[in-house]
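Hi X.,

You mentioned you wanted examples for the new student's onboarding notes, showing what a folding record looks like when two proteins sit in one file. Here is a clean example. The first protein comes first, with its sequence line followed by its structure tokens.
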Amino acid sequence: METIQTKYSAYRWVVLIVFMYAIALTQFLWLNFAPIETVVRQQLGIGVFKVGLLTSIFPLLSIILSAPVGSLLDAKGFKFTVSLGVIIMGVSVLLRLKYNSYLWLFAGQFGISVAQPFILNSVSKFASIWFDKDEGVIANGLGSMAMFLGMIAAMVLTPLLVKSNGLGNALYIYAGITLLGSILFVLLGKDNPSLSSSLKEEEKEYSGKNAYKNIFGKKDMILLLIIMFIGIGFFNGLMTWMDELLSQNGFTTVQTGTIGGIIIGGGILGAVIIPLLSDRFKRRKPFLILATLVGGAVTYPFLNTVSMTTAIVLGAMIGFFVISLLPIILQMTTEIVGERLTGTATGLLMLIGSVGAVVVIYLMEWIKNITNSFHNALWLLMAFFVAALVLSILIRETHPDRAKS
């Protein structure tokens, strides 16, 4: 296979920084209403469903848009796709400035949710064109880290800003930092100038039908898609119902919020450290197995403990290992399908992950409704991890220096 990159310039770090800023913004804007739902409901006079839709529209649109955005990435390239995303995001955030109207507020969130896949789904494409095989996972890891930094910023900063400045002023501040991020990427974000001319010709001749046929013809890619479904489903199910799950053990809402932050904090560390180790030892499969093994082993005691200290330690372990699955899976995808089809394959991953998020959340609620206990949903999570562990064992090592044909 032809190597796309012929020169890795120091400018890739500039592109990485402005790209990470854009990634963090997508998560920041997605969740910025989640911690202030009561304030929004009272100020606009709307119900729980409407305010919840400001956040839930994102995974729903991700299901619809991930696959076509992936195809666009491989047909038009990284710069074009992400620039389109940040422009849509920049325009949409201005719509939210009419915050006294739910219609305008929702229109802004809808537009930002459209933009999100154009940016998030480009992480592995960026890594494949700007970083060589020995740095690919850390590039994916830093992109993943930016996602979780954006989540934490939304949950921590929004209540503080709204309390001190009011909802309207907070949205103006958010509009300013979003427009700055959009402008910086459009001006500084670039495709690798050393991309081979043959790749550029291939982009012009891109065929979605042939791309999907190629991807689905690879057994390891199908296994990764299933693991992605399980991993994203587990994370979203756990974070969505954590208060319900842990309140049964005597934890307060404040305590579960702290534990949730610890999980994401552990994930940020894992998204950097695990990729570094993976690149250092030139191995992917062992870390995939380790993540599913630890995740499955720790989940049961985590959801049954009554000790805050134990919950914090086990929560940090879940975050550290389970969230680190994402950059490993993204890099393995590139190594399985090749740089040429990375965008299309990543789009499929994000599509399946979004479906997993929705399915697991509602499955857990369904189990609770028929058994009158969220505790029984724990067995669903455990079964998923057993399946993920088996699939991780079956998948082949994908690092170019270790892979076997």
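Then the second protein repeats the pattern, sequence line and then tokens:
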Amino acid sequence: MKQILLIDREFGAGGSTIGEKVAARLGWKLFDQALSEEIAKLAKIPVQECRKREERSDPLLHKLVNIIWRGSFMPNPSSTEEAILDTQRLAGLLEKVVLEAAEQKPCVIVGRGAPYFLRNRKDIFCVFLYASRDLKYHRVLKRLGGNEKEAIELVDTIDDDRRKFVKQYFGHDWPKRELFHAMLNTGMGDDNTVEEILHLLESANRKNQAGQT
């Protein structure tokens, strides 16, 4: 029985919004923002400070905030005032909170390297969401309130950071297609994407149940 839905995504493809909608439809617990808050707490990073700077290109916290809030790669932090943290420890914190979240199934986990940390479990269903650069840009632009320069920078850099993180800690290209049951283009619309995920998850569970009878 697939009781853990993992949603990985390109930045700006709508993973958080779609994950929230899917979790609501299923009545499952959602782990997205809550994971970031737990990681920040364990790393002794001020959560409110991270939230305040989430979409800003801060020279001290930009990379740190990226990995905390978006699950991307971070070189050793330059600000000892904000956090005493290296990438190896941060990867360990990511794994810890993801493994703990998975024990609270049924649940939906968005990002944070979950498909890699949980890849050996039999009760997961993994979906990767992607979209055109134009769609991602306009989605991010709306969230930023029209800051075109920053929207372009985020869309063009965050996924590259994620690739580096996955390559360094798992030795795989990102996304590793073999880990995912489906890869969906969110250009079909958020609601249609939600319906497709639900249909695929239901079909997978029906197949599992048929195999057990």
